[in-house]
Amino acid sequence: xxxxxxxxxxxxxxxxxxxxxxxxxxxxxxxxxxxxxxxxxxxxxxxxxxxxxxxxxxxxxxxxxxxxxxxxxxxxxxxxxxxxxxxxxxxxxxxxxxxxxxxxxxxxxxxxxxxxxxxxxxxxxxxxxxxxxxxxxxxxxxxxxxxxxxxxxxxxxxxxxxxxxxxxxxxxxxxxxxxxxxxxxxxxxxxxxxxxxxxxxxxxxxxxxxxxxxxxxxxxxxxxxxxxxxxxxxxxxxxxxxxxxxxxxxxxxxxxxxxxxxxxxxxxxxxxxxxxxxxxxxxxxxxxxxxxxxxxxxxxxxxxxxxxxxxxxxxxx
Length: 317
Ligand code: NAP
What we know:
Number of strands: 19
Distance between the termini: 25 Å
Number of domains: 2
Low-confidence stretches: none
CATH topology of the largest domain: FAD/NAD(P)-binding domain
Shape: elongated
Structural class: alpha/beta
Helix content: 10-25%
Strand content: 25-35%
CATH architecture of the largest domain: 3-Layer(bba) Sandwich
Bound molecules: NADP nicotinamide-adenine-dinucleotide phosphate
Radius of gyration: 22 Å
CATH class of the largest domain: Alpha Beta
Strand order of the largest sheet: 4-3-2-8-19
Number of helices: 6
Largest sheet: 5 strands, parallel
């Protein structure tokens, strides 16, 4: 306890975020015998919790995202890593040999911080989106798909998320229309092929959505605007799922760490940021592939480098 009564807990490694990157970092750090804690905003697993069908995590065939997340959490804890859930971070001090993280669950200090805060679904920022959030507008098919049994849905986007989640939504919806601003998807071919084979899926190309239309209670339509002709029309639907990319969760680190113009943390190949003793792993950093498996690989590398850094601090003493 400090003089002002605040409870300060000391660790070697502080990991912010309990998705695949944070959990893997926790596993490697704990197995490296350094005192480690993961501070997670919600529940373990990050974006894995939004994916029921994970087909590309090697060796984890026929497991859902939440099942993989749970297995990762249990394994990480088994080697002695502590995890605090529902932990709201209010401030971080990253400079110097002693880093500090202030949270609603206490203050934590450490020699190293690994940032694994991931990313969240980008907003479309059009009229109706906020107003009908939770009343027809969603960013999570796994969470909300079942509310749309036998209804007509629109999915916006052309990446892996839009096409994969659009296909998933056909389990519930009578019809899913994917609206994409270009004339081809950027989603992986296997994901596209599955969608094109699905008779419940239709695609509207070269079209954006300038407004989500409702009746005060819920969504009734989306306004379509052709990027070729600028013509507008309303398209009736009961719900809209928005999958137009991800924004990194880096607000806490603004002006404290080097980022690109999109707010992603810049690291080198050792996951080092521009601040000594601070590492970043997973979707939060600038990386060409955002997958659970690459996030876990980032986390394990960050933790391994962090242990080397801690040993180098001990050599200085
Ligand atoms: P993404 O790959 O960044 O794709 C975003 C899509 O939304 C693009 O098609 C983009 O159009 C479109 N878009 C962006 N801003 C828009 C706007 N304002 N209005 C309309 N459309 C807009 O995002 P993601 O699909 O969420 O995937 C994110 C990362 O996770 C990717 O690296 C992806 O590979 C990975 N992921 C992988 C899997 C899997 O392996 N199964 C599943 C989900 C996600 P343009 O194409 O015109 O730019």
